[in-house]
């Protein structure tokens, strides 16, 4: 079957709230891999990409240094992602702030050399600033622009232009600046705002987004910024933005994507463990991956779960029940 490679991207330098650096190791300690394996998903942590220096050791840095740290971290992440793909494993990148998208999707493009890639971007924000427009100069607000070919040279060197504007689609946007919206409009990128999700329903929004990401491409990816969710469902983020995507509906609409051969990778970012409440956000990460990743059909109704996990497990089982078996041992 299809082994899943969990790759931690311990990046905080790209964010305003640098505690995202601690996200992947918290998910490791939480037991994410074990939880997925209990669901029959062959998942293992294969790498934890660390920053050259930890944020708390040297909190104040010049912008140039921050950019260099982010670029260098992303270069190592990209190499790891490409390596996992080369080894026949499915990459799941766990951030870390959203600047890691530069390395994740740069690495997917490298690992799938010559293939065209689409991307569905779940986020409260657009992350489409450049150095010329960013009010904060935080690289996590620039990663989508970089993937489209716009941004600082050191970022473009890792993931520049790996997704064509016509193959990127946002879902859940509700907080952004005019300048980044301008860039995306100029490029013709489709943005399905939260207001539009409310109007049409998440299922229709995702159908359109996947069609955009898949049109004329060989594969597509999902990047899920946890702040795209409603803070009720994902409190463990730096910027809680009200009126977001809801957990139950997301799990329901994502379930049909599980095991699709043209799904290239999944990225989940911006987890801040110290902001989490009763591990609700960590459990959401696990539930998303249980929903999206393929598992052998004989394990789908497996009733064995660790204490405290039964609610999540039941949810995962319900969401995928009745799907055609896609993979077998
Ligand atoms: Mn983001």
Please outline what is shown here.
Helix content is 38%, strand content 16%. The protein is built from twelve helices and eight strands.
Q: Which features does this protein show?
A:
single chain; Arginase, Chain A; 8 strands; 38% helix; globular; disordered C terminus; binds manganese (II) ion
Describe this structure in words.
It is a single chain. 38% of the residues lie in helices and 16% in strands. It has 329 residues and is α/β, with parallel strands linked by helices. It has one domain (4-320): 3-Layer(aba) Sandwich (Arginase, Chain A), CATH 3.40.800. It is globular and about 50 Å long. Bound molecules: manganese (II) ion (MN). Manganese (II) ion binds at residues 98, 123, 125, 127, 225.
Largest sheet: 8 strands, parallel
Physical arrangement of strands within the biggest beta sheet: 2-1-3-8-7-4-5-6
What structural class is derived from the secondary structure elements? Answer: alpha/beta
Portion in beta strands: 15-25%
CATH superfamily: Ureohydrolase domain
Quaternary structure:
single chain
Low-confidence stretches: 299-329
What is the topology?
Layout: E1 4-9, H1 23-30, H2 32-38, E2 43-49, H3 63-86, E3 90-95, H4 101-111, E4 117-122, H5 143-147, H6 153-159, E5 163-173, H7 178-187, E6 190-193, H8 194-200, H9 202-214, E7 219-225, H10 247-254, E8 263-269, H11 280-292, H12 310-320
Parallel strand pairs: 1-2, 1-3, 3-8, 4-5, 4-7, 5-6, 7-8
The structure holds manganese (II) ion.
Manganese (II) ion is lined by residues 98, 123, 125, 127, 225.
């Amino acid at each position: 079957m299809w082994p899943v490679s969990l790759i931690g991207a311990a990046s905080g330098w790209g964010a305003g709230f640098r505690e995202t650096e601690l996200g992947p190791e918290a998910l490791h300690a939480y037991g994410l891999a074990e939880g997925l394996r209990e669901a029959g998903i062959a998942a293992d942590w294969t790498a934890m990409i660390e920053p050259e220096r930890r944020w708390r050791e040297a909190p104040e840095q010049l912008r140039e240094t921050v950019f260099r740290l982010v670029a260098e971290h992303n270069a190592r992440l990209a190499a790891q992602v490409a390596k996992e793909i080369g080894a026949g494993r499915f990459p799941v990148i766990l951030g870390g702030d959203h600047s890691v998208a530069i390395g994740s999707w740069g690495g997917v493009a490298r690992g799938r050399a010559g293939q065209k890639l689409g991307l569905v971007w779940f986020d409260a924000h657009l992350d489409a600033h450049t150095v010329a427009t960013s009010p904060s100069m935080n690289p996590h607000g620039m990663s989508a622009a970089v993937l489209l070919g716009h941004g600082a040279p050191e970022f473009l060197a890792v993931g520049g232009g790996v997704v064509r504007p016509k193959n990127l689609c946002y879902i859940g946007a509700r907080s952004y600046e005019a300048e980044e919206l301008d860039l995306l409009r100029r490029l013709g990128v489709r943005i399905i705002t939260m207001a539009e999700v409310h109007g049409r329903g998440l299922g229709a929004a995702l159908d359109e987004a996947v069609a955009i990401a898949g049109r004329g491409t060989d594969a597509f990816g999902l990047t899920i910024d946890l702040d795209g969710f409603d803070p009720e469902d994902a409190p463990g983020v730096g910027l809680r933005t009200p009126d977001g995507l809801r957990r139950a509906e997301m799990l329901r609409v994502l379930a049909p994507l599980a095991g699709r051969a043209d799904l290239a990778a999944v990225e989940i970012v911006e987890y801040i463990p110290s902001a989490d409440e009763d591990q609700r956000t960590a459990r959401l990460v696990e539930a998303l991956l249980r929903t999206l990743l393929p598992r052998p059909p004989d394990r789908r109704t497996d009733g064995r779960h660790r204490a405290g996990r039964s609610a999540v497990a039941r949810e995962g089982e319900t969401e995928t029940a009745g799907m055609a078996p896609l993979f077998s041992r």
